[in-house]
Structure prediction request, 384 residues.
Amino acid sequence: MKPVSANEATDGELIRRTGDGDHGAFEVLYRRYSRPVFGLALRRLGDRGRAEDAVQETFASIWRAAGTYKPERGPGAPWLYAVARNAIVDRGRARSEPAVETPEEVSGELGPADRAEAGWTTWRLHRALEELTPNERIVIELAYWSGLSQSEVADYLGIPLGTVKTRTRAALARLADVLEEELG
Amino acid sequence: MTDTPDFRDLVGDDLTPEERERLERVHDLLVEAGPPPELPPALIDPSRQLDAPVVQLPRRRIGAVIALAAALALAAFLGGYLAGQNGSEKFSLFHSEPLHGVGAGRSASGTIDIGKLDSEGNWPLKLIVHHLPAAPKNGYYEMFLTSHGKIAATCGTFAVHGQSATVRLNAPYDLRRFNGWVVTMERPGSPAHQVMLTTA
Prediction:
């Protein structure tokens, strides 16, 4: 059977290899997940320094605990999310500032369950972005997060408008594929 | 950002209903999730995460930091005796730090010329950059000092419109408190600092 390269391997396979001490597999996992973990930590902790610490703790935990991952219990992404969430919660508990008192009034903000769902959704999306080619990724970033119109994206990148639209559509399709297939 | 792209404008009208629905779900997720943050310099290298929850400087950085710290200590002792000329404008060069590109700025490079400490406690800086991409609309570049790989203090903002640029910046800090520099791309409305150049 042809061996699967680390870059093509599923998250679950990479976790299994990491559990066997495979540094290459760990590095691929890191490239796929470091930004999603950092984003999750930043949203939950609201502080870049503590978020950085949480990322380091997450990947140190992954390295140490990868051997306990059981593929038959589910795909790798939820397992990684759980490890990250635990590290972030621990980092949140470790904060030195006094805790903010919980307001008694009902607020319009998301409750814990909604926040968890939103966190998981964002995590999956940010993870899927790592699968885009640089050409696909830049058109998505410029269109969605830089406030540029498609024509402005074309001007900015110096490519025809039709190419921008083709790449954007391809990027959205690839994201849909990754979200549906890899992450379940 | 408040500007939400129009889905129809992005993908056109010639999709099957099934594909349109599939892509529109992703579109909604992108709008809802917002951009992932750029990794800070301390988190770029995966090999640094294996052993330690504490940020470790890579070996070549440690050498550079020691060299810079030693140079800065010497400068403080000599009171800026070392002075040089660089270009037609008066700029007393004390020390230079090379920058290399990372991430989206991997083709870029640069140099930070650190001038002589003035009597007010300012370190004049001359930043020379090459091949930095133009910042997006309303975006700009910013240079920060870093401490143990983390962004710590700004040295100013600037724009780039060509292959190379030279800008004057300033560091009103005790530089011995810091370990390096990064140049980041800043986008309006985004808290992320996208690192483009680093001394690490």
